[in-house]
Predict the 3D structure of the following.
Amino acid sequence: MVERLRRRYGSGIDPKTYLGQNYIVADPSIVYELLQILRDEEQFDYCVDVTAVHYPQRKDQEFDIVWILYSFEHNQRVRVKAMIKDGDPAPSVVALWTTANWLERECYDMFGIRFEGHPDLRRILLPDGWNGYPLRKEYGITQQDSEWVKINLGIESGQ
């Protein structure tokens, strides 16, 4: 599979293995097409997860977007990563796997990453109007949106 993908994408992909786990680092410009090929041609028919990792020290590519895919046919798992900068959208894969719908919403809610083409991108865990994104490194572990708490709960934040 890796050789077929390398012939097609060349340096646009970088296949890797870490502790027996296979993953592909893909250029953001081709990642949607790559994911579609993994589904259609390589039989990765289930999107297990869509998440992100925040690296604030990488100024031009602060986020890794990670798609974890599974093939029932081959009993195989693969991860695909694409690095994007803060504010750049990632492609929505809801059209490829409906399971990505709530996963992308959670990623948006926790990291603030927008998924271009998502049918209903809005918060899923935190209330509308919440300020900040709790899984970003700069979001303090005890930080709360004190203003939201005061307005909506009528109390002062205990933090």
